[in-house]
Amino acid sequence: MTRAALLRAARTEWGPLYAAVRGTFTRKRLAAVPMTLTAVALTAVFQVIQNQPWGYEPVQRLGSVQAQLPWWIALLRTPLSLFVPALDLPVWGALAQVLIVFGLAEACLGKWRTLAVAYTATLAGTMYARLGVDLGPGSPLGLPPEAAKVIDTGPSAAVVGLAIYVSWRYRAWFTCGLVVAAMAGEVIVKPNLAGKEHIAAMTVILAMCAVDELRRRRKPRRDAHREHDRRPGAHAGSALSDPARPPGGRGS
Questions:
Q1: Residues 117, 119, 22, CA angle at the centre, nearest 5°?
Q2: Tens digits of per-residue pLDDT, 141-194?
Q3: Cα(202)–Cα(48) distance, rounded to whole angstroms?
Q4: In sequence order, what are the residues at sequence separation of 6 or more whose Cβ sits closer than 8 angstroms to the Cβ of residue 70?
Q5: For the whole model, what pTM was predicted?
Q6: What is the DSSP letter of 98?
Q7: How far apart are CA 34 and CA 185, in angstroms?
Q8: Which of 35, 120, 201, 207 could crosslink 111 through cysteines, CB 3.0-4.6 Å?
Q9: Are 208 and 123 in contact, with CB atoms under 8 Å apart?
Q10: Can you tell me the distance from the alpha carbon of 218 to that of 216, in angstroms, rounded to the nearest whole number?
């Protein structure tokens, strides 16, 4: 493939996303991603605290989720579990994931939708862990009993969900497919709790994307009906059918 063809492919794949991110940062600078910066700082603080002799237990009580915990405790801890780095992974990986993926998502989607997608993906993983343990190792979707004791923290499920949602929203189909293929490959190579949670998060977010796609496709039809209602003949007909309504409509 020639350089020109590569550039065209890159513009097609990432052009809309780049334009959205660039426009937001041009207008707002770092004020475009306050939630992301807060999340990075919170992750770093949790990492420092949990590595102190006195800090491990408080961090676990605030943000550690396990499938063996009662539902209400797991639900209370799940929001903060996004920002508690896994002890067996380098913290710079979690910080980079949050900074890059959360930052891009917040610049494109806004902080509230970014948080909603991230939390939904993380909650999907948490719910799957319980289902997988209940199904047991005999099921393709199941997990061994010892998975119930695994400490389940970190932003990885949220990162997977946000990467899929943003790439779908901005029609970066190759990127979306690459993330899906990577998650499928991960669970084939290493079918552990983390890999299967990523599949659960991916599945739920893809379902969200499909619902959003249907809603967006139906919206032009509704707008067309509204446009029809705004035509002069439609106003006149409405006014004749409703004597109490002035002929010029609400704005006259």
A1: 40
A2: 899 999 999 999 999 999 999 999 999 999 999 999 999 999 999 999 988 899
A3: 30
A4: none
A5: 0.83
A6: I
A7: 34
A8: 35
A9: no
A10: 5
